[in-house]
Amino acid sequence: MTDPHQWLEDVDGAAALDWVRARNAVTEDELAGSEEFRRLESELRAIYDSQDRIPVLAKRGEWFYNFWRDAEHPRGLWRRTTLAEYRKDSPAWETVLDVDELNRLEGENWVWHGVEFLRPDQPRCLVALSRGGADADVTREFDVESKTFVEGGFERPEAKGQLSWIDEDTVYLVTDTGADSTNLAGYARLARRWRRGTPMEQAEVVFEGPADNAGYGIRAMRDRTPGFERDLLLHYLDSRNSVLYVADESGAFVPLDVPDSADKDVHRQWLLLGLREDWSIGGRTHPAGALLVADLDEFLAGGRNLDVLFEPTASTALEDVTCTRDHIVMTVLEDVSSKLVVAHHGDDGWSTRPFGGLPEFGSIHAAAVDDEAGDELWLVVTDYLSPSTLMLGDVAPGAGAPEVLRSEPEFFDASTHVTEQHFATSADGTRVPYFLVRPRDRAWDGTSPTLLYGYGGFEISLTPGYAPAVGKGWLEAGGTFVVANIRGGGEYGPAWHQAALRENRPRAYEDFAAVARDLIASGITSPEHLGIRGGSNGGLLTGNMLTQYPELFGAVVIQVPLLDMRRYHLLLAGASWTGEYGDPDKSEDWEFIQRFSAYHLLDEVAGQLPPTLLLTSTRDDRVHPGHARKFMAKLLETDQPALYHENIEGGHGGAADNGQRAHMDALYLTFLRRHLMPATDPVA
Question: Any idea where the Peptidase S9 prolyl oligopeptidase catalytic domain is (predicted)?
Answer without folding.
Answer: 475-676
